[in-house]
Amino acid sequence: MATFLYKLGRLAFRRRHFVALIWVALLTLAGVGAASAPAAGTTSFSIPGTEAQKAFDLLEQRFPGMSADGATARVVFKAPDGQKMTDAGNKATVEDTVKELSDGSEVASVADPYTAKAVSKDGTVAYASVKYDVSGMELQDSSRDALEDAAQDARDAGLTVEIGGDALQTVPHTGATEIIGIGVAAVVLVITFGSLIAAGLPLLTALIGVGIGISTITALASTLELGSTTSTLAMMIGLAVGIDYALFIVSRYRAELAEGREREEAAGRAVGTAGSAVVFAGLTVVIALVGLSVVNIPMLTKMGIAAAGTVVIAVLIALTMIPALLGYAGKKVQPAGKKSRWLGGKRAAKKAASGSEAGRPAKPNLGTRWASFVVRRPIAILLLGVVGLGAAAIPASSLELGLGDDGSQPTSTTQRRAYDLLSDGFGPGFNGPLMVVVDAKGSGDPDAAFKQVGDDIKGIKNVVAVTPATPNKAGDTATITVIPDAKPSSVTTEDLVHAIRDKGAEVKADTDATVLVTGSTAMNIDVSEKLNDALLPYLALVVGLAFLLLIVVFRSILVPLKAALGFLLSVMAALGAVVAVFQWGWFAGLLGVEETGPVMSMMPIFMVGVVFGLAMDYEVFLVTRMREAYVHGEKPSQAVVTGFKYGARVVSAAAVIMMAVFAGFIGSSESMVKMIGFGLAIAVFFDAFVVRMAIVPAVLALLGKKAWWLPKWLDRALPNVDVEGEGLRTDAEAKGSEDPDEDRALVRA
């Protein structure tokens, strides 16, 4: 592979006009496609195989026009102090509001509080239920505006009015977080390279790659039913890996220049060596993202595949466009160790010319000094790293999973205030009613089955109220609303859902009627359980495939095993940090977390997928340098130091960039987005700076030559992908270089 990529890099360098034209044409084509594509509709959120989804599907069949998955809103009214909602003036205001709400074009129905018995016992709180024909994400802005205008009119009449439900649900906006991430990345790149031109190349290629990826997703959004969250993940991952992959190749190019090679040759060798690592690092990310399809949640599958496509584009751009742009840059990209004149290069040159540095040995860089320290004290560093991550992971033992509801919203939002008003007036369980669907099509006496279900549910613990069964026109299916006595996200409500389903099995045996529990609360519970059940199979699939891939890359058993175990340490520590902040409330004020509660159910599997791919990036880039040195004759301990000499600075810069991109999302007003941003940022920190920078060199120093052991039969069976570029060195030796300095450079490369 190294030889093929070497030739590709040289070709792209020579034919830079052609390569640049191809990528500009692709960007233009994707942009035109995105601009001319029909407006994307929103994807329907479905969870195949869950009971809640089966019930929704059944309602669509048996209650046509009901819009079971349509958006809902609860307009909650509270009377002024000393008054009641049953007072004539307040009642007239509510009735006017109900009439105003009924005029909406997307409104399916509006329930009057006074006819629906939706007034609290003390008479101070009432609510009107609004049902829409379309889902919350499909609702037009005009319908949301009409909802808010009606509420404001009631406020002007003297009532306290808040709106709950998913009708006000919108795509979460994160503001200028991407710009913040790019700005931090630019600063880090300038510091790393000491050159504005060299720093600009990774940014430019990453933006082009993300532009092509996001434009393609936009162009296909309507055809493939891709939601807006699909492009958000693709942008987050594509931007991060796009900068990182280009960073590694530009860094290697500058190192090759410092060895005295011509620019075309340096570009070829950079793509042949660092480019090989980019290919395999990209493959691990793609495996992790595509593997999300194991969960069998369509939305998550589409997000993973789209993000994986953006990663593939980032790899291809790094392998072709970076060498092409290096050809355009020419001498403006300096060899490693030199800075541009704008960043202190002229001052350094004068200092060298004056002879003030003459006779002094070159000072080892920070990566060399750190690796030498770790190699001398591997046991102490290993214990410190493992114990530290273990301590950070302790809170993960108290992990509670769930999906957010209005109760997890900031207290400044109308959804949260409506949630609190309903809890005060009707009890906490009123915010999460359960819908029980009774399918009595196979029953001899449907009415008796409906009555038995209602009576059985009334006898279950933690049930506050059960409404009479509401049958469809055919009389073979009915819905029953159950009000729990606990809030929607509580363990008590989850136990109640399972208890009702257990009763359903008894009803099935007695009456041949099928009982299904659905509603947003039941759907959240089912999604959480589905994600939990999928976590171990997903982890086994992703880690297993990547383990096999890394065996091919490193030609070792212990190095991939160590990489996988280190990743598990960093993920558990990151989950512990998420629990400490978002569940326990540690440093919550500092991060702007207004409300603590269960961790989002999707967080563990999402973190495993994304962080595993990125963690293997750092493993491949750092350890391939070590293997390269070992293959070229260095002792194992010295190879560790050499790997850090050339790779530590670049990997550190890549990790800081990645953290900046993810940390920008902590500023989001949406708690779930904030949690994802924090979780990914802290996971990258743990993995890059504790696992890869401390635990990895310590373990390799302790293992010595055993780290690179591979059974002979397996060595013969595995393909030789030559990530370390040994084939390039062999080819050069075969040609018999006449320059002894070049021979020595080849040995060091």
Description:
The protein is of the alpha+beta class and 749 residues long. The protein has 24 helices and eleven strands. Helices cover 63% and strands 7% of the residues. The strands form three sheets. Strands 6, 7, 8, 9 and 10 form a five-stranded antiparallel beta sheet that branches. Strands 2-3-1-4 form a four-stranded antiparallel beta sheet, with helices on both faces. It has a two-stranded parallel ribbon with strand order 5-11. The C terminus is likely disordered.
Biggest sheet details: 5 strands, antiparallel
**Percent helix:** 55-70%
Strand content: 5-15%
Shape: elongated
Integer average pLDDT: 82
Total strand segments:
11
Give the N-to-C terminal Cα separation. 17 Å
Outline the low-pLDDT stretches.
351-359, 736-749
State the secondary-structure class. Answer: alpha+beta
Total number of helices? 24
Supply Rg.
Answer: 31 Å
Compose a concise summary of this entry:
The chain is an alpha+beta fold and 749 residues long.
Keywords:
alpha+beta, elongated, 24 helices, 4-stranded antiparallel sheet, 5-stranded antiparallel sheet, disordered C terminus
How would the blueprint of this fold be written?
Layout: H1 2-14, H2 16-36, H3 51-62, E1 72-78, H4 88-102, E2 107-111, E3 125-132, H5 141-156, E4 160-165, H6 177-193, H7 196-224, H8 228-258, H9 263-290, H10 298-329, H11 345-353, H12 366-376, H13 378-393, E5 401-402, H14 414-426, E6 434-439, H15 446-458, E7 463-466, E8 470-471, E9 477-484, H16 491-511, E10 514-518, H17 520-554, H18 558-583, E11 599-600, H19 603-631, H20 636-663, H21 671-703, H22 712-717, H23 726-735, H24 740-748
Parallel strand pairs: 5-11
Antiparallel strand pairs: 1-3, 1-4, 2-3, 6-9, 6-10, 7-9, 8-9
Helix pairs in contact: 1-2, 1-9, 1-10, 2-7, 2-10, 4-5, 6-7, 6-8, 6-20, 7-8, 7-10, 8-9, 8-10, 8-20, 9-10, 9-17, 9-19, 12-20, 13-18, 13-21, 15-16, 17-18, 17-19, 18-19, 18-21, 19-20, 19-21, 20-21
